[in-house]
Records
---
Amino acid sequence: MIKCAYCNYSQNPENAKFCTKCGVGLKSESDSVAESERLRLLGGELRLLTVFFVNLTGIEKSIRKDTYATTKQHVQEFLSSIEDIVTEYNGTFNRIIPDFRILGIFGAPHAHHDDALRATRCASRIRDWWLERKKESKFFKDIDLRIGLNTGRAFFGFVLKESPFLTVIGDTINTAARLTEMSQHSEILMTRPTYNVVLRHIDAEHIGEQAVRGKETKIDIYRLKKIRATPRVVEPQRMPLFGRESELNRLVNLAQDTIQEAAVYCILNGQMGIGKTRLKEEFEVQLHKNDRISLFETNCSVEIQSPYHPFRAVLRDILQLHELDSQEITAKRIDEMFAHEDATRSPAKGAKHLLLTDIGRLRSEEMRMANEEIYASVRDIIRNECRKRPLVIVFEEFEQADVMSKDLATYLMAELENEPVMFLLINIPKQFFDGISVDFTEIDLKPLPKQHVRSLIQHILGNVDNDLVDFIYREAGGNPLFTIEAIRNTRRNKAINQVSGQWHLVKEQALVFLDDLYGLVMSTIDSLSPDPRLVVDYASVIGYRFSLRILSELLTRPDLKEHLDYLIAEGYIVLSSDGDDPVYIFRHNLLKDAAYNVLPVRKRKEIHNKVATLFEQIYSDNLSSFYEDVAQHYLASDVYGPATKYFKLAGDKAKNLYAIDQALSFYEQVIDITKQFGAQLPESLHREIMLNLIDIYEIKGDINKMEKTARERLKEALQDNDQKNAVLFAERQAYGLILLNNLESAEKLLSSNIEKSGEQMAEIIPVLYADLGMLYASKYEYDQCLFNFNMSWRTARANNIKEAEIICLLNLSKLHKSLGNYEKALEYLQHGLEILIETEDIRRNIELQYLTASIDYEIWNIEKAKNVLTECLMTADSIGSFDAYIRSALDLAHIYSLNGEPDHVNKYLKNVDKKISFLIRESLLAEINLKKALVYYNSQDYKKANDYVVNSMRIAERLNQREIEFQCYELLSIIDENHKMEHVRKALGLAEQMKLPPLIAAALYRMTLIYLENNDIERARHHGRKALLVFDDIKSRLSNANRQHYVKRPEYTRLLEI
Amino acid sequence: MTCAHCGNVTEQAIHFCSHCGAAIHDGVASPFEDIQLTFLRVDLSGFTKMSEAMIAEDVMAVLNEIFRIFADTVESNKGTIYQVIGDEMVCIFGLDTESGFAPHMAILTAEDMFNKLHEFNKTANLESPIGLKVGAEIDSASIFDVQRDLRNSLILTKGFRKSQILQKNASNNTILVGEGLYKMTKGFFSYREVGEFVEESFGVKAYEYRLKLKR
């Protein structure tokens, strides 16, 4: 039985939706929670909304006692049908029954980039429904429907908390209400603010300004005629394409034919004005005619580089997101888009890293992981997209793309080489392809020959004499942009004139402005009339790309949109994305730079400051996408406090995207500003930056700088009695000292800080113990090492720090593996896989699985190792885990090389080479080279084996990777005929120094074989017995089942023979 | 017992269907048909203009506070808030048969609102005081899909339209009532005849209630 919260009647049946005593709806607990949560979130917001009222007028007259039932039925039908339509367009509705009205709300609680258009389409659909219904029903014969739309800011929220009503208040709503009252005979009226946003998508009649009740000023009204099937496009007045037919055909062929066979990578280069953009535009026109090909374009020009900017734009396009959509909408869209995917391998994760911003302090492992997820996501999303329809992605000004984007592009080109995808990279030297093993096509645009220049001149001027053509060809040198500007300029300055319908040269005078690009561009801008020129001036301060909302707040002019359309038509700017807040881009970067540079500095600063604050106000729910821009605008307006704050945030953002160099430059910018301009940076912010910088130095391998910075900051924190940061800096300094092999100082520092760390610093204690464990491992003091790893695990468990627990578990199992305690190592891994790690945490699962496989290999359970490695390899590829993929592939290649299966070996080696990119950390390189050397040795390619082992040795020595060094000597003792004994002695020396039984056994075994080769039987037996003792000791620690495998190890059986 | 509205069958003797919420009279679902209700429409004057200079949180806080005061007043006079439309509140009196003098209670509610708003204006420290425009009328109505809180019920009546015309034509801080309400309550309260307002061939005779404000 359910109890009614309203009347307390408790005899309602279990499935009752309404109270049987008082009739109140019975809400479930979850509904109430959801509602209160929603109310908490919504309570009172000022929103940009597009609203309309739908009024049903004349219905009161039909309300009589004898018509109640029919009227009720029709009114109900009317209300629910309208509400269904509003819902269909993702709007919110408010039923106003007393007045037979419905208020449609677009823009709250969830905003969309095209709310005004949605509202207009929805209103039009309601009218269509109404006209149909009116025809069918006698009841509606004398009833009229009226609709009025308006766009503007209004308060949206809920009143009366106990029994809430959705309410929207503001002049925007009142104006819509008044407008609706003015509408007649099923017409839809809209105000100018709404019209301005949707004008390209509709046909409307301008009624003019009208006075309305309750408003002092008149409102400008439009009557909607129809929604256009395709939006009206402001077409640039493009010249025909002269002299580029062959290049165009080549591009079209690549996109339409070659792409069917394999991926196409093409670069398009040439000097400014030579026609790259024009050729690209014509290529895009051709692609648009072919609906079998999808096209996405991204412009890489930005004032200040933001990691992955071009790919973020492409991803947004594919996910149908507007570039100014809020983080909330973006997250929702990503979830919707990948709802059907397996959550553990969904591209959603990487897409979220890329499009949503995380500025928390991530450790280097987490950063790497996030970045790998980005790589896998972008690859999978593009692959899925191009498998639906061949896909062309155009990267404008690719040279200006950030380094992360260039690396990602490199990776994608290797990964997608068999997919129907084309990358057109505009403006990038062909050296970009050095080191990438994919084919590419280069199109280098040369100046036009004279006959094409003549055609171009004739197209603009009509009939011209030869002298004029010669003159312009000489001055502009076959560059189309220079040619056009030369014609404009000579005509403006009356250096040419028209006589009897033919243009002649009046006087031959060198066109000096063509001597440099800046002069040319200035000439182009100067030809604008004052109003559009002013628009260009202001837009140039916002940046290469600028949104209408920011520009319209800077320049409050009713005709702004017309000027922008004019600038599009004249080829100064292009519309990058449409919607309620269109975004424009300068067609040429130099145009923007030239306009910006001639603005008075004071004016520029003033505009920069306004732009920064407008970003904060207008895009507050998506500000993290613009941290770099806001920082730059504040810096350019000499407002240093906010500039440092935003540069710091931009640094955090870049760091978490693994854009280490960019993060470093943002943080250094903060430090420079504080030093140069004395901007006050809060101490907490300063220490956060320092911690992040220390992490960056570690990732970059600059350990000396890492240690020095941590030491200095530790001193400062201690002086300020900032205990928490002092411990954090101490940990970093100690870690640096361990890496620098200054173990004694590190030990002191760690021990003293473990004592200092109280309960409030619980999260750092497991890290300090883990560092100590690592330190003792470096000193080969394994008991101490085990003790500290165990302490780390215990403190992590006590404080419920799962990630630290997992790291401890990995450390412990690796250590036991090195010591030959394989069962113990497997036990830890088993615990991790079965209890500690969530099934969804695929990355950690593979890491542990891989380790299990490597132990299986040591035990000589080869079949099991092979199966697990194959699974690891596939999973690692699907989630984009580079380390796990490369290690698994190399181990598989190794196993197949032992069995003499060269096809498999080559396949895995090839796959590994494709994955090796900048993301591979240096510490893995020695291991990769060693494993390759082993594979080549087994495949009897001794030359390659030697090269790789030497390389591996060099890196391992530098990075103090002793176990790898040992394996290198071991392999050299086989390959290097002349120095066999020398190498094996070094190997044995290292093994004894490290006190690792499996290595000692391996070195003794090698030595035994060498003595055998030298016919020194006695020594061979002596060392063989010693080796067998160690092998037996390891064997004794194994389970019965595993012993059965272990005794089949070739070394073991051979030793028994000896 | 079978609900005539949705066909839901229940063995209990009930007042409302547990499945669709329809009222059940004598075992069959039926609307409240042709009952006399008093409609009160109260609009805050000057609020929208004032709100444009305020931040969103303050606007909603002020509106919530005023409507909370009004809601208490309505409830204590046995009325029901039917809807809130922006800064307008639509109330109904007479739904609860135990309330007795519903039309009179509606007038007293409006008067009480004026007094409480006056108190609010004195303490709220607003740029300019908020006013009220009130329209009220009694008329016959039918209510469908009834639930006690009325929110989702459809009410068919001319009373809403009449009280809306009266409210729209009321000057600031006045109460205009229609002819029906005037006739029902003139023995208790004093009125001044104002004349007839016609909107789209819908005419309403109006009387201004003589407010007795506590100052």
---
Amino acid sequence: MKRILVLLLTAGLVLSGCGKSDTGSSATSTPVAASGKKLTIGLLPKAKGNPYFVSVKNGAQKAADELGDTLIFDGPTNDDAAKQNETVENWINSGVDVIAVAAEDENSLSTPLRKAQAKGIKVVSFDADVLPDARTFFVNQATPQGIGYALMDKAAELCGKEGEFAIITAKLTAANQNEWKKYIDEDLKKNYPKMILVDFRPGDDDKALSQTVATELMSAHPNLKLIMAISSIAVPAAAEAVKQAGKVGKVNVIGLGLPNENKQYVHDGVTNCVILWNTGDLGYLTVQAADALVKGTLKPGDKSFKVGTTTYEISGDNILLGQPYTFEKSNIDKFDF
Amino acid sequence: MSSTSKSHGWKSLLLSHEFILFAVVVAEWIFFYFIATSKNYTGHTVGFGTMDAQFDILRHTCEIGLLALVMTPIILTGGIDLSVGSVLGVSAIIFGKLWHDEHFSIPAAICGALIIGASAGGLNAFLITWLRLPPLIVTLGTYSLFRGLAEAITHGSITYTGFPDSFNYLGQERWLGMPAQLPIFVIVAIGVWLLVHRMTFGRSFRAIGYAPEGARYAGLPVERRLAMVYVLAGVVAALAGIIYTARLGEAKADSGTGYELFAITAVVLGGTSIFGGVGSVHGTLLGVAAVAILKNGISLAHGSTEMADMLTGVLLILALSASIVPKILSKRPARVQTVPSTPQPTPTT
């Protein structure tokens, strides 16, 4: 008798446990209805908690809302290539219409993406590309040329197109930095004959070293007007050096970096601006491109892609986000990454 | 427990942890079958209810499943191995390095990785049995040691990739219609099940878990048995590392990070006591299934990863409570009977 009672109680407990999880989950995830043009878009970041990707998501959500699409933003909580693959594979099985990815690892993520394409799911990449055969388009946030020219133009503007400036890079062998430097040199030679690049020094992506280098540059070149830091770690380091040397206002700092770690220096007037791309726009364009690719308004071979009143250039299979974005005192607080 | 209630065999079966967990797994499966399966606008069935989705769940779970299988005898002995995820990582890196840099053939590189796994398990076993250090502390140390080794070999940046398709087949393709790694998993599962449930070894693991000193006085070779389970864990973790590498097509230093906790979750969910002595391999398999179906089902229903993690925790607590409650209920009346001499018998029952 007792045992039967126990049995019933246990059964009740198990059932009520299941019942609870039933109602809890079905409220949040209703089955996708077989509707016509409402697309389901899977957006895969490298790490979903990273503020950089959260700001990408905000732009992506805006585009999805405008288009009436369902956006699924999911992926690893830290940079985890295996979790990225699993997310894509689950999306294939659950039948999303299009997948947009920022790859932690181009090789390993390409495998499930090819599988997705074989099942008729469209794929675009953004921020960090996969292998070209695993996606149709790459939404390219910035070209080396765009970055190089934006940095040099800004430097010349702040110096009144004449005077001495110096560059702190990452490592002398860093591929990205050297690519940007190439276009900085090109812009300098072509457009700013009175600007003099007095030194090009590595900071090894190390905060302390970059700061030392900046201090040395200021003492070696008393007429230095501007330090351009083209490694994100070197930008706040250079600003700190200028601040400690008491040269705020005499030596300007600009660079390629993230808004958050430079906010204080920008507000204090040490750093004039940091240059990067607008991550919200990147998310917005990615979702617009993903949607258009499924609906057929964007096809391989197109030379441009029109969204509303903006036309984006397409170079090969890269959709270009356009000019880099300048984060300065007036707008830097709107960004959190 | 089973001896006292032999006449009520079916009831003890129904109340057993494994049966409750089995019911939970079936309930989960049915639940996700209904909420995460749908037809897309071309009329094809998509989602949880498709064969592809079921096979992908198996593929995603294979490595964690292997770790959980070999974690079971360890926890049965009252031990724990926190280093299995790191062993997975370092074996994957050694495999990649042997093939890529040292130009070993794939089978030779696999052997190399398995030897590394065995050595890693051997180091754990040495520290635990010869130096008599607590397994928790030893494997907490080797957890960092092996992961650090993997990162040192690659300088944290190199990933080995470009493996031949014939190797990636193991992790990515179908063999006779099923995921290619499934047969390996089944073989290991049968092997561990036989070890724990059909050989005298299994009884000695439980004896050690109940009372290591007692087992020693009873003449059991406690050190040898302990060394055996930790070395086995190292070898199978290396095997999981190879399958993981094949699934991703690349070997990375952070492979398998956090997998040890998933494995322990599955083992404990499967009814193995964390204090040792009690547990079963089929319980572990059910535990793995319960976690895997939940995680993948939520993902297929477009729920978020965080929700899957939270519900895994809820499931663990619910399942453990569900198996404790009957014991508490059956004890309560017994306790009332043992104190009949109380001056004021409670009028309410």
---
Amino acid sequence: MERKYISHNSLMNWLTQLNNEGNQIYAPVAKGNKTDYKHITSVEEISMDHIQTTQSAKAVAFPRTEKLFSYTKKNGDVTLQNFDTTTIPETVVFGIHPCDAAGFKPLSGIFNWDTPDLPFNERMKRTTLIAVSCTQCDEFCFCTSVNGSPGNTTGSDILLTPIKDGYLAEIITEKGKSLVDKHSSFFEADPNVNKEEYLAQVPVQFSLEELNKKISNMFESPVWKQQSERCLGCGACAYVCPTCACFDIQEDAHGSSGNRLRCWDACGFSLFTMHTSGHNPREMQSQRWRQRLLHKFSYMPERISVRGCTGCGRCSRACPVDMNIAEHLTEIAAL
Amino acid sequence: MDNSNIYLPHLMIVEKITQEAPGVKTFRLKFKDEEAGNNFEFKAGQFGEYSAFGEGESTFCIASSPTRKGYIECTFRETGKVTSALAKLEEGQTMGFRGPFGNTFPMDEWKGKNLLFIAGGIALPPMRCVIWNALDTRENFGDVSILYGAKSVADLVYKHELKEWEERPDVRLVTTVDPGGETPDWKGEVGFVPSVLEKMNPSPKNTVAIVCGPPIMIKFTFPVLEKLGFTDENIYTTLENRMKCGVGKCGRCNVGSQYVCKDGPVFSKVELEALPAEY
């Protein structure tokens, strides 16, 4: 892995240059007391003074709503227009934290474990992730409990760690390297710093080993009901999660033509698994909470060898009834 | 990397519509793109996602046998908005199909065995595919017995085929309707599937039982099979969970770590018993 230095000014100039070259730049933008990834046209819009954005960055590869294809009906006949890959712009996502970058691996696992998912893969192919290590954290962060860290390079193409007056740049992938090589004048020599000194201290909250051992064998445990008694089934946890990929397929019809859409969905919703007959395999909220945790910590590791959680803590921050996933996982690991 | 869009359906021409029972229709579908039709292969037990453009997709099995080439058939009950829109289509019109998805009945393993089919209501379609597959390769199998029950005489689907099976000397067909569902000229059994099965008293010797039906029927049929001496290895069924994608991504149909769309829809009773009770 190549290491370089980039000053703050050069970084801003580099992003401006990338924007001018036609890349679509996504970066954290503050609005009120919330910060979220937005498509920016000027680096002036970027705000880095946040611990965590409200939403994850997954929408760059898995948009909240996306067109899978279009159809036109005429006299009983139908013509289809396939998903158009040519309209997907080259995209640079700047300022995501390592927990968000790491989230793209489980997403890719879900979208590719059996058959490749064209829309997701085409968006990923055109996306470069420039992550920034965390220098601060809050009580909801638990990346270090799920094999992550505030300076983890997994998933990023380039990882910047804020050091004095600028950044240590770790160039991780070929994609990252080509973006740096194209504009090498913005970069200087390896600053030779100890990266760890600049990172936030995120305490380990539970033993992952213990959690793994317990969670796969506790389908019938009373813990699911206890933990989910106040769950409203609002789905906020799934919408803010960097690895949640459950989706619905819906029709967007306009008279004789329309689009087949893929939309975010959530396993916490009561209608999610409801059959047409009215039978519902997960009719209780406790069954849906169990599905959420087992999917992330048991089924995904078993089927696609990747955990569905990066410890970003967003679900706990977003929960309207203060369900704290790290506390619940700690409880399970200690059973 | 495969560059095709797994969400883009094949366009299918509705070639023939059969009204099977009140609200139940069978569509014979032909690929609009001849080459796609020629390249299409599937096996007994697999399913697809059927599109009514403007309303969306619904999941049904492929109800025709892979031995019958050049078309596929699906049978559905008009229930929700997609099936209602499909039911409005006329012969010659176009709909969509994605598939085949899911696993298959192990027809090769069953060679030389007797087959006992037990179906209830609208669950005969997934079994009809297997029945015709077996009858079209009749020399591969021993005795073929079919027990089919519906709420009423009117609700029995595939009435012409039931007649055909009844008349075949190499098929034993028993039909039954729920008490009160019989007509004055009804010659079949009256009673629920599990009790008629008990009366039929089929031998478990070298026999595979394939059971499809509403959950309540399956629940009461399994103990009867067990009593008759059928072992879990020789009992098969299908699960039908809600699905959207059909290819293991949308997150709905899993039972524990097993996806009905990938690891099913066909499960042996051994596999079924290993699943958590959440289906």
